[in-house]
Design brief:
By secondary structure, this protein is of the alpha/beta class. It has 6 domains: 43 residues; 44 residues; 58 residues, no CATH class; 91 residues, no CATH class; 45 residues; 156 residues, Ribonuclease H-like superfamily/Ribonuclease H (Nucleotidyltransferase, domain 5), CATH 3.30.420.10. It is built from 22 helices and 6 strands. Strands 1, 2, 3, 4, 5 and 6 form a 6-stranded mixed sheet that branches.
Length: 524
């Protein structure tokens, strides 16, 4: 969304430029042509632009009432109403019902009495089940429960040992005069067992605590070595944190903190103070190198830069530091410009044949055109890349992919050649490389033409790779709203200058193309 000041500025500039939409968009970098047209129409009708926009309802009051009435008259079903009328959405209809007929809204209701049985009732039911002369379902109905509950109670009592003789006939159970006394004894034994179990658990906890205290005193004597003995209450927080760190592998942290009488926040503070970052200087270098490359260098190139400065460090450490510092290289998508217009002249053979290696500069050249689309318009780049080291020999940037764009680029590249240098110029089958101006310049300089097969981008993959690196590092992931075409051209030109002079390539031993040529003595 644009502010009121931006909108009115665009409209007034449109009137000033005699209704030239393209000129306004190119200068301001915004908005779209349709948006500018809408702003101008509103300005013409009202003499000004609105500042606050209130969204009007999509549906009329009659349509809302019709939907609510249909809902009420057809079973109060939201899905049926939406399916029949074709509008609105389910949440919207629910909102209308709440607004127009709140008493007609469906609600979920649940309830019912819960019958609770005593232990004696459960025992009698289980006894009847074990000595039954009728189906279990009838026994359950007699006691007002379900067949499943009866069997659950039976399993429970058999497990507890309270009713050992349930599987015997009821007559033998009745003959036993000591059933109640046995049950009382068993119940008392269970209570004693539970009491003893709780005592054992408490003793185990106390033993565990005493073991931890013993380990703490031993470790404190080993690490701190005080002559007059050790009192945990008089230790400093740093000494406590040192002891806890030494025992963390064998004991839980919360137990150690509890015994040492130390807050967790104090412990965390002391850990940070003790464990200083040994990569602090390296972290600064990594961030500085990443910022100098305008967020274009990944871990491998940053590792190469730091290694060339004399530091010995693993690339994994560089990668971890970049992850911790959230240093991410933007990488979105790619889409290339197509200049193919058909076979307007006979195509030459593919002399390069995907062999992009060159033994010396100005032996093999690659060229192509790529497109950049920003809100202000489209920009086209036409470079010549040297296969020797990937150096951009020459390049032109314009707003139209015409013959002038490629011809000026070729003239600039030819002007840098010595008399004995006759490179091969490889391109795709675009129309720019078949027009008379291009052919005349190639023939006059005695250069050799080479063309890819139709629609086969791998035949010019080295040049396509240059475009991919350029767009990933400089174009994708950036907001170009408000950037004019001239400003974008300046940024693109600055990047290509930096690419040839300063951007390091791992294939060149961590040097830029220009520095690589200097190391070989090819340039001064």
């Amino acid at each position: 969304m644009f502010s009121y000041q931006e909108n009115i500025k665009a409209v007034k500039l449109l009137i000033q430029y005699d209704m030239s939409y393209a000129t306004v968009i190119r200068e301001l970098g915004y908005p779209s042509k349709k948006a500018l047209w809408n702003w101008y129409n509103e300005y013409s009708q009202n003499g000004d632009l609105h500042q606050n926009f209130i969204k009007q309802s999509k549906f009329t009051d009659e349509e809302k009432q019709k939907a609510v009435d249909y809902y009420r008259e057809h079973g109060k079903c939201v899905s049926r109403t939406v399916k029949k009328l074709g509008y609105p959405s389910r949440p919207m209809l629910d909102k209308w019902i709440t607004e127009l007929a709140p008493d007609q809204k469906r609600y979920c209701r649940s309830g019912g009495a819960v019958v609770k049985y005593t232990r004696d009732q459960k025992e009698q039911a289980v006894i009847s089940l074990c000595s039954r002369s009728k189906p279990a379902k009838e026994v359950a109905a007699e006691y007002g429960t379900t067949r499943e509950n009866l069997y659950n109670w039976k399993r429970l009592f058999l497990k507890e040992g309270c009713v050992q003789s349930m599987k015997k006939p009821i007559k033998k159970i009745i003959q036993s005069q000591n059933v109640q006394s046995h049950e009382t004894e068993v119940s008392e034994l269970h209570e004693k067992k539970d009491e003893l179990s709780s005592q054992v658990a408490e003793l185990q906890k106390e033993v565990h605590r005493l073991k931890i205290e013993r380990d703490i005193y031993e470790k404190a004597a080993e690490l701190i070595k005080k002559d007059k003995g050790i009192n945990l209450q008089t230790l400093t927080n740093r000494e406590k944190a040192t002891i806890i760190n030494a025992l963390r592998e064998s004991h839980q942290l919360n137990m150690l903190l509890n015994i040492m009488v130390m807050a967790k926040s104090s412990y965390c503070y002391q850990v940070l103070a003790i464990n200083t970052d040994k990569y602090a200087d390296l972290r600064t270098k990594v961030k500085g190198t990443f910022e100098e490359s305008s967020s274009r260098y990944g871990s491998r190139r940053i590792h190469s830069v730091i290694k060339s400065a004399g530091a010995t460090i693993s690339e994994k450490v560089i990668r971890r530091i970049m992850k911790e510092e959230d240093l991410i290289v933007p990488n979105i998508k790619r889409k290339k410009y197509s200049s193919y217009k058909g076979e307007i002249t006979p195509a030459v053979e593919n002399v390069i044949n995907r062999d992009f290696k060159a033994d010396k500069p100005n032996n093999k050249w690659l060229t192509d055109i790529t497109e950049f689309h920003i809100p202000a318009g489209k920009i086209y780049l036409s470079p010549i890349i040297d296969c020797f080291d990937g150096l951009p020999v020459s390049w032109t940037i314009g707003t139209s992919p015409n013959a002038e764009l490629v011809n000026i680029m070729l003239d600039e590249a030819i002007s840098q050649l010595r008399e004995d240098e006759k490179p091969i110029v490889h391109s795709d089958r675009g129309c720019h490389y078949r027009w008379p101006g291009w052919l005349e310049r190639i023939e006059k300089a005695e250069l050799t033409r080479s063309m890819s097969k139709k629609g086969c981008s791998p035949d010019n993959s080295a040049c396509e790779g240059f475009f991919g690196r350029l767009k990933n590092e400089m174009f994708y992931g950036c907001s170009w709203t408000g950037v004019t075409i001239d400003q974008f051209i300046d940024q693109l030109d600055a990047y290509i200058q930096w690419y040839g002079e300063k951007r390091i390539k791992l294939s060149l031993g961590g040097m830029s193309p220009l520095n690589y040529r200097k190391s070989l003595g090819l340039v001064a």
